[in-house]
Amino acid sequence: MIFDEPALRKLSRLRLVARRVRSGVYKGERHSIRHGSSIEFSDHREYAPGDDLRRLDWNLYARSDRPFLKLMEDEEDLTVHILLDGSGSMSWGENEAHKFRFALRLAAALGVVALNGGDRLSLALLQDGSMAAQLGPLRGPHRTLSLLQSLDTWRSGGTTDLNRSVGSYLAQPRRPGIALVLSDLLCPGGYREALRRLQGFGFEAHLLHLLCPTELDPPLAGDQRLVDTETRQTVEVSLDGGLRALYRRRLHAWCQEIRDDCRKRGAGYLLVKTDETWESVVFSGLRRSGVLR
Amino acid sequence: MTIISPLALLLGLLAVPIVLLYLLKLRRREVEVSSTLLWRMVIADRQANTLWQRLRRNILLLLNLLTLAALVLALADLSQISPAVTTPSTVVLIDGSASMNAVDVLPSRFEVARRRIEDLIETLPSGADMSLVLVRDQPQVLIAGSSQADELRRALRAAAPGQGSANWAAAFSLAASAATSTGRETTIVIASDGGIPSEGLPVLPAAVRYLPVGVDDDNLGIAALAVDVDEEEAGLFVRAVNYGSLDHRVLLTLRVDGALWRAEQVDLQAGGTIERSMGGLPSQAGAVEARLVRSDNSDQPLDQLPLDDVAYASVAPPMERHALLYPSETAPLRYNLFLEKAMLALANLEPFRAVPADEEGTLGIPSDRFDVYIVDGVVPDPLPEGNLLLVNPGTNALFSMGEAGPVVGPLQMADHPLSRYVDLQSVHVLQARQVDLPDWARPLVLSAEQPLVFFGESDGRRVVVFTFDLHDSDLPLQIAFPILFTSLLDYLAPPLPFDPALNRAPGESVTMVPPLDVDGVAVTTPSGRVEPLEPEESGFVFTNSSELGLYTVTYQPAGVRPPDTFAVNLFDPGESRLTPIAILPVTQGATSTLAEEAQGWRSLAPWLTVLAAALLMFEWWWYHRGHAAAIGFRASRTG
Fold first, then answer.
1. ipTM associated with this complex
2. What is the CATH number of the domain that holds A277?
3. A-chain residues within 8 Å CB-CB of B43?
């Protein structure tokens, strides 16, 4: 996966936007609400066992005879989590409109933006209700090549269970941050549980909903037995103009339901049609939706 | 509707295996999709579908069942009630007169009659034959005694209505002859709007069935148009009649040589007539057109029969005639004074005297050509080439004359146009020569079977002969003489090739006797067809005048005479009066009775077969429509 020089330059000018700053490990470029060890005083709190004694405010302890920790406002890095749906349904679409390849390129672009912005980057490939691969945490622009090489090795396949896969991802200790979920959301179990868990863990979630042209307007007609590429389940339909129109209306309503649901939950949503260029999605769509600036 | 072969309906049970086969054999093409999630949602939405939606899903099955139903009904011979004849032989008389062009029933009365006869053909019993006769000015046998429906239909489709009247007497004679010649029970079917005379028709020796057509009587027409020409100017007379039961306000327009001359708005009450006489028509006018048009500038037709809404009249200047009078005696030279005076009194006739060529009184052949040669007494030898008026001639090359004898008994005129307006009751003839009438001659004036005046055509010339000396009769002193002389001169040397002022009915022949220097005549019909005429004994005869309108006559060599015109108009109240007749007034003879309406069954099998084929075609298109789209989809899916 290669970005040319102009594209990289343009990506380097972008920054991921966090509506709420999350605590980080390294000093970064964002002010954190977590009190740290910088020189700017923020507050006091009572000492708890295990606290770093070096941050004890000895002067206050002397005056009040009670141990208080001195809390300093810290500048922290942002953790960016990119969760990529790698199920069989993502392996759909022709040429540049192939959903998984498109999602990989989007993930790479977002990853490059995160690394350039000094953010902490974690990626995971979600398959069969778990993680088929994960990468990171990475930090710093020098990890760009490593990021791209790793993404090139990722393959789609298997089934989708977004809820279980996210649960599996969150089972490991994660620092909350921005969670970008790239998926076609074509999973029988839905996406709501996954979203709820991410937000419950303090993640700022964004759904990038990828659909290819043949899903938006399937060129089907006549008596068909439709076979699900993941589950091999079949649906028999006799397709005509009326049924196709009904499909399009249902698809539109489905996307609108997800958008409304995300808005209610405070999550971001962006419908990505894979017949667009990745540049238009990154430089226009994601900026308009407030993920990038 | 009825089913002729109900057992064939059992074939409808084939629907059961078709449905079973459809359900069992319905092979849906497997197509891989990224996910069936959305399709399941769509199917769930459709659970509340109507029966129609379900049927749409199975439209191929539905088409199969419809095709089967159409074929089964065709095999069961689904039929509808239709008029029929049941006799072994049928003669159909189809009214082809002008009134059958009326459009009160669409597309026209004739077309409706044609369809009703087609229904009869459909229901013709097996082995029965049918003859079709189109009744126009002369009845025309379209097809005789055929039992082949295809032949009958083909012959019927070739028929077309005329623009004149129908000769029902001849048609009835033809039908009667056909009915008696078959030797089988025959039905005579008359498809007409009823313009059939109630009397004077031959008896029809068969049952008569009447197929009436027409529903409306709304019609206006020009009933008369005449032009009167004198030396100074011409006058015009026109009559318009409302034959229908509706009042009309219309515009009567008159055009002279295509240019509008007069227009007048007239009110024509139902059944009413208006007449107009107008002077001031240019005497050099060629043709006059009178037309009734709507006064409201609407595009709608004025009435149900446009044919009689227009009429034409023709005006032609008379041509100069040259007549040569031979002397009664050459020594001394003396001419018949009565003949000379009569010649001088005639308009458009330039008289000449024949003068002896030498002192011996020899009368030779004049070098100039004359339209008529008038000989009194001595007949020149040889006879001049041309039309002859011979008064008291001796034996000559054309006929032999006997001795003079007394004339006994009153004078009688033969029934001929030449005797029109001639009254010989007070005319006396002292003596006349005996003559045996030659073959070519007809007597015009007789006394006790002795011809006193006879006429005819011999060797291409017209000849009129007085068998008595005018001095032996008081005829020259009577008013009858100039009238008779004018008629005879007009016969021998017509002032015009034909009478353009005379209205001619469609189909009527026109005889043209042009000047002697005319070599050829051609007639251009109103539709633009040019028909050259061959010279006949009586002149040039044009018989193909079936079209209404203005005909143009041109002469050869070019310039010998300007073109003339004559008009053919439908001045026939019987045709213009469109009132449909429900019951045919054929009452003469015991066998000419109206039969009760018989009923037959018209099979719908051919239409059902066509419907089945169309359904199959549609099914094929529908199937391949979906198939092509699916192929396109598979080709586009490249993981």
1. 0.76
2. 3.40.50.410
3. 235, 237
